[in-house]
């Protein structure tokens, strides 16, 4: 008997053959499991990114709606001041156009804004301030000639 078996004797031995046959399977399974894990991680990260971007888009919509409301209020005030100063009804065009749509814009902003108590309170306060401002502006328009003359009387000494 030999102390060191030959190569053919070692290859014919069963445990060695089963180990050699198992090597390709384990070499294939490890990359497949790693690839599947990596793929699932990437899908999870993509879903998180989509959710975050959806929130950012919603925030931009709310900000845009708020800026549009601010622009409408500025147009209304500017038109009213122009009319009060000149008496020309053409200056009331921005006021009348904005007055028609400002309430619907507040309703749209209410639908867009988050339903948290602080944001609802801010929106309600803004809507009430805008509504009372429009009431005051309509009152100024009704007494337009009187207001205009008082306004012009204050400006007249400055112009000379």
> How many domain units?
1
Order of helices and strands: HHHHH
Shape: rod-shaped
Summed up, the helix count is 5
Q: Tell me what portion of residues adopts beta-strand conformation.
A: under 5%
Helix content: over 70%
User: Which secondary-structure class do the elements indicate?
Assistant: mainly alpha
Please give the largest β-sheet.
Answer: none
Point out poorly predicted stretches: 156-160
Based on CA atoms alone, the radius of gyration comes out at: 38 Å
**What is the total tally of β strands?**
0
Task: Estimate the mean pLDDT confidence.
Answer: 79
Provide an overview of this structure.
With 160 residues, the chain is an all-alpha fold. It has one domain. It is built from five helices and no strands. It has helices at residues 7-12, 14-86, 93-112, 117-142, 144-159. Helix 2 (14-86) packs across helix 5. The longest helix has 73 residues, at 14-86. The chain is rod-shaped. The N and C termini lie far apart (131 Å). Residues 156-160 have low confidence and may be disordered.
Keywords for this structure?
single chain, 160 residues, mainly alpha, 5 helices, 88% helix, disordered C terminus
Summarize the structure.
This protein is an all-alpha fold and 160 residues long. Helices cover 88% and strands 0% of the residues. The chain is built from 5 helices and no strands.
Q: What secondary-structure arrangement, pairings included, does this model have?
A:
Blueprint: H1 7-12, H2 14-86, H3 93-112, H4 117-142, H5 144-159
Helix pairs in contact: 2-3, 2-4, 2-5, 3-4
């Amino acid at each position: 008997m030999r102390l060191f078996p030959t190569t053919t004797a070692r290859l014919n031995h069963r445990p060695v053959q089963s180990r050699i046959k198992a090597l390709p399977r384990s070499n294939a399974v490890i990359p497949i499991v790693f690839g599947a894990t990596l793929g699932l991680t990437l899908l999870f990260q993509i879903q998180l990114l989509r959710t975050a971007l959806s929130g950012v888009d919603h925030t931009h919509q709310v900000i845009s709606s708020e800026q549009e409301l601010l622009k409408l209020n500025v147009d209304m005030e500017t038109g009213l001041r122009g009319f009060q100063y000149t008496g020309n009804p053409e200056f009331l065009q921005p006021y009348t156009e904005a007055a028609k749509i400002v309430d619907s814009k507040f309703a749209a902003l209410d639908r867009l804004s988050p339903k948290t108590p602080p944001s609802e309170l801010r929106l309600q306060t803004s809507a009430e301030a805008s509504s009372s401002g429009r009431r005051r502006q309509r009152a100024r328009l009704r007494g337009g000639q009187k207001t205009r003359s008082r306004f012009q009387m204050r400006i007249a000494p400055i112009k000379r």
